[in-house]
């Protein structure tokens, strides 16, 4: 009996191994098959059906710890007729200055945001600063770490930095369904509202994006800066947990941050190219950011416009590997010079040039006469929690030029390229 039990153990182990391999193969095959179906592909990229605030009313921001009427819920209409749900968040310092008047304001979604007190405070302050906030996939503007993140936006300047966040089409209470072109139009609608209705000049506006929102923010900045008439350059961009593009994101996707579903397929470039041909929303962030920077560096705007780009990622982010930020940074740096550099050479340069902050991670900066591209990798923060951290608050402050930049401006340091 004892010998029989011992003899059966290898058989059990072999069956277990084969079952695991078969299960993994089935999961991988199913994942690949679903990616070729537009509906499932869209859900895989945007996850907009997962609201995460099913039992909360996003017209009542106080549920997320805001002071009464500190947040003004309102709607925006896009040029193609979609209705976007939005929040205007007053910084706490300003709220306390106007608290008595704000408490007398009606609550809920306002029919005309331009008549709200919060909007008037924003529009009539010649020193007001504004963050256009683009959140990640899934949920609504009230989900997860997003409300704490809104508070972090104004942490360094609680009397000046306003935030406006939107739910893209198909998210939360907004109408429509998400597409790459549609989300850009949503972002343009918000930008035009800030520039024209709120009358805030672009020099006092920063773009903040996290995860999917980084792709939206980059697309917005690229569109505004490169349009043939009346090009616009915002004060700066803060990109938290960006991805290089959807193709690379899918190839690097890991279930629970551990199981690389497409790793076997990635070993066959032609098969990966075939799969990529089915992708509808590509979000080529690395390429659009590079084109945006080349446009500014070439002086095509005919002025001395400057850019400021902050890239932030956590090492323990298992949703989007921080290697994506390395790729985005490399494409950005290459775009600032005609010389160029390989990815490997830039990584070698970064080992010597980066500033080590111990348990806080590290940062590397590339200055040019036209601006700054900064990559900061922190050790902790996961994918979403990092949005509420001081590292993000400081980045927003720098993007809005609240602080004087440190470092020496150099004209294309050859070692950086």
From TrEMBL:
MF terms in GO: hydrolase activity
Alphabetized UniProt keyword annotations: Hydrolase, Membrane, Transmembrane, Transmembrane helix
Residues spanning the signal sequence: none
Residue ranges crossing the lipid bilayer per the database entry: 12-40
Coiled-coil residue windows: none
Keyword Hydrolase included in the entry's annotation: yes
Domain AB hydrolase-1: 131-290
Pfam family, one: Abhydrolase_6
Domain of life of the source: Eukaryota
PANTHER family registered for this protein in UniProt: ALPHA/BETA HYDROLASE DOMAIN-CONTAINING PROTEIN, PROTEIN ABHD13
Name under which the protein is recorded: Alpha/Beta hydrolase protein
Organism encoding this protein: Podospora didyma
């Amino acid at each position: 009996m004892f010998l029989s039990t011992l003899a059966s153990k290898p058989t059990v182990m072999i069956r277990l191994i084969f079952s695991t391999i078969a299960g993994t193969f089935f999961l991988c095959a199913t994942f690949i098959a679903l990616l070729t179906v537009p509906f499932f592909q869209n859900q895989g990229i945007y996850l907009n059906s997962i609201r995460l605030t099913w039992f909360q009313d996003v017209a009542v921001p106080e549920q997320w710890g805001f002071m009464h009427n500190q947040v003004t819920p309102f709607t925006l209409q896009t040029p193609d007729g979609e209705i976007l749900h939005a929040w205007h968040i007053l910084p706490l310092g300003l709220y306390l200055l106007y608290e008595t008047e704000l408490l007398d304001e009606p609550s809920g979604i306002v029919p005309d945001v331009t008549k709200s007190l919060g909007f008037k405070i924003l529009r009539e302050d010649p020193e007001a600063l504004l963050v256009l906030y683009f959140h990640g996939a899934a949920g609504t503007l009230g989900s997860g770490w997003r409300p704490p993140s809104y508070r972090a936006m104004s942490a360094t300047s609680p009397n000046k930095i306003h935030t406006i966040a939107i739910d893209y089409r198909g998210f939360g209470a907004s109408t429509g369904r998400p597409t790459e072109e549609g989300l850009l139009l949503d972002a343009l609608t918000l930008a035009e509202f800030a520039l024209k209705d709120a009358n805030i000049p672009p020099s006092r506006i920063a773009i903040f994006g996290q995860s999917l929102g980084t792709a939206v923010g980059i697309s917005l900045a690229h569109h505004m800066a490169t349009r043939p008439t009346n090009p616009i350059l915002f004060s700066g961009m803060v990109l938290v947990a960006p991805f290089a593009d959807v193709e690379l994101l899918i190839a690097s996707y890991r279930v629970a941050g551990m199981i690389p579903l497409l790793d076997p397929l990635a070993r066959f470039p032609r098969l990966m190219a075939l799969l990529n041909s089915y992708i509808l929303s590509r979000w080529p962030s690395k390429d659009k950011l590079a084109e945006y920077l080349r446009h500014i560096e070439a002086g095509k705007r005919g002025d001395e416009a400057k850019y400021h780009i902050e890239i932030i990622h956590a090492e323990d982010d298992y949703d989007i590997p921080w290697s994506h930020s390395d790729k985005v940074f490399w494409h950005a740096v290459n775009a600032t010079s005609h010389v160029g550099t390989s990815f490997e050479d830039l990584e070698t340069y970064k080992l010597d040039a980066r500033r080590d902050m111990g348990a806080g991670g590290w940062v590397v900066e590339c200055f040019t006469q036209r601006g700054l591209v900064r990559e900061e990798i922190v050790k902790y923060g996961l994918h979403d929690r990092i949005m509420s951290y001081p590292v993000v608050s400081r980045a927003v402050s720098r993007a809005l030029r609240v602080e004087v930049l440190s470092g020496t401006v150099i004209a294309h340091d050859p070692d950086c390229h």
